[in-house]
Amino acid sequence: MTQLTRLDPSHLPAIITLHHRVIADLPPGNAASETDQFFADHLDACGQIFGAFDGDRLMAYCVLGLPRETDPNFGTDHHLPPDQLGKVAHIDGVAVDPQWRGQGWQRRMVEHRIEIARKCGRTIALSTVAPTNFPSLISTVSTGHAIHGLIAKFGGNRFLLRRDIGPDQDAKFPSAPDRAIWCASDDLATCRKLLDDGLIGLFCQSSPHGTAPRIGWVPAIPA
User: Fold this and answer.
1) How large is the average pLDDT for residues 79-97?
2) Is the pLDDT of residue 106 over 80?
3) Nearest to 93, CA basis, from 72, 60, 62
4) Using an 8 Å Cβ cutoff, are 33 and 67 in contact?
5) Could you name the domain of life of the organism this protein comes from (predicted)?
6) Under a CB-based contact definition with an 8 Å cutoff, are residues 30 and 133 in contact?
7) How far apart are CA 144 and CA 172, in angstroms?
8) How far apart are the first and last CA of the chain?
9) How large is the average pLDDT for residues 10-28?
10) Alpha carbon of 49 to those of 24, 90, 127: distances in Å?
11) Is the separation of the CB atoms in 220 and 199 below 8 Å?
12) I want to staple 211 with a disulfide (CB 3.0 to 4.6 A). Which of 14, 80, 115, 207 is the partner?
């Protein structure tokens, strides 16, 4: 099986090339367009980047953000108290070459970053996904991240997702209960109402013919 390896500054040009190749094929607003400096910083200073190769060619990469005290922190979008911001890990950008799609790379790269984040002492994994980025949404929710919010960010709408990853907190994958309320991920008015009503999006079902997946909403469990 192809291994994920931690990338270093020598891989920066390949990361940037793959990023722009993938972004060019996506509808506007579906993924953040990152700067070269973002990737350079996340190779070491405020995160780690992992990649998989076909020979010498980078075919997939994923970014793990480990924000420092002065760095932007997704926890502020979740209104986390200051003493929890240092526990946050960002499950950030991913790119997979079209030749490698459909092989479960997004899910595998989420799980890999969760394990590294734990080793770095982080206990709260936060991510953002556009409601219309169907593959990323399905992959991220299927790895135990729940939708806790919906805001304008990165030039489009973004679901705010959270998974607690402390030493005694394994992801649970229960079946959707009968009481779950379902709506399409791109039905933003309904999604916002359900979030305002105190529900979280814990389940995600694929839909046929490339249409929006359905999100299953249940009441949030009080902390």
Assistant:
1) 97
2) yes
3) 62
4) no
5) Bacteria
6) yes
7) 7
8) 39
9) 94
10) 21, 12, 15
11) yes
12) 207
Res 223 pLDDT > 70: no
**Residue labelled with tokens 């779950």:** 180
Token look-up 């002065």 returns 70
Determine the distance from the C-alpha atom of residue 168 to the mean position of all C-alpha atoms in its chain, rounded to a whole number: 22
Query: In the numeric block, which tokens belong to residue 149?
Result: 């919010």
Q: How many CB atoms are located within 10 Å of the residue 117 CB?
A: 25
Q: Range with the lowest mean pLDDT among 71-80, 119-128, 162-171?
A: 162-171
Rounded to the nearest integer, the mean pLDDT of the chain is 93
Sign of the dihedral through C-alpha 143, 149, 155, 156 = positive
Q: What are the CB-based long-range contacts (under 8 Å, 24+) for 33-40?
A: 33/155, 34/93, 36/12, 39/12, 39/15, 39/63, 40/9, 40/12
Q: Where are the beta strands (DSSP E) in the chain?
A: 5-6, 47-54, 57-65, 88-96, 124-129, 146-153, 156-164, 181-184, 199-205, 214-219
Q: Specify the pTM.
A: 0.93
Which residue is listed with tokens 């972004």?
23
Residue among 184, 214, 216 nearest 199 (CA): 216
pLDDT of residue 126: 98
